[in-house]
Amino acid sequence: MTAAAQQPTQPQVKVNVLNVCSPSAEEKEAIVSALVRIPKQPLFSPDFEIDRGRTSLQERPGFLQPGESGQDSAESATATWVRIRREFSFQALFSTVQYSFSHDAKNMMETLVFRVRDPKDLMQVSIEDSASSVTSPATMLSTNTPVSRIKLERFGKSSVVLARCPAPEAGTAPDQSAYAPLFQNASDIVANYRGLLRAARVVPDELARVDLFRSKPVPKPAVRKSAPKNK
Prior knowledge:
Helix content is 22%, strand content 28%. With 231 residues, the protein is of the alpha+beta class.
């Protein structure tokens, strides 16, 4: 028996590398098609859901840019969030839309997710934007923050992602002018659904309720020192 025959056969691993800065023409067309199919004036069913909470951040949030530096403080170890979900009527392509707002000590992020009712090719569309926490959530929600990321989840295929790419430390930013209409269209969709879901009113109210459960450190009792005894 030869040495080659004794070695077990290694399974082949296929790695798909996503070009998020410059998707191909086919991927660009897929994004265009998905965004166009999102209804501007949807018919919602009576069902809805609003969630709120606080989550410990065990690792660096994924929406931070890889080039950002700095250590997380104890204050930035948690994030408060609010989710609003509405269901579309049965004749719609999408079954649900979910809006999420996340806020920690350094960043705020909006995420809008549309899930397809009967997925055959497209499964869901997600759109994200983010801003620094130097301002308040209410201020961010009153401003149309430009979208920074668009992602298509597809059935049996790799995802399609388009993201704004900053300039590297040594070089210039990639030319993304060809994708400007896609970013603008996605930003308009977020602004529209922010209004349809009343996020500018709901989110600050729900975040205030989360703050009611914010734990405060219990002050330590003062240690009383006894006077020295006279010998």
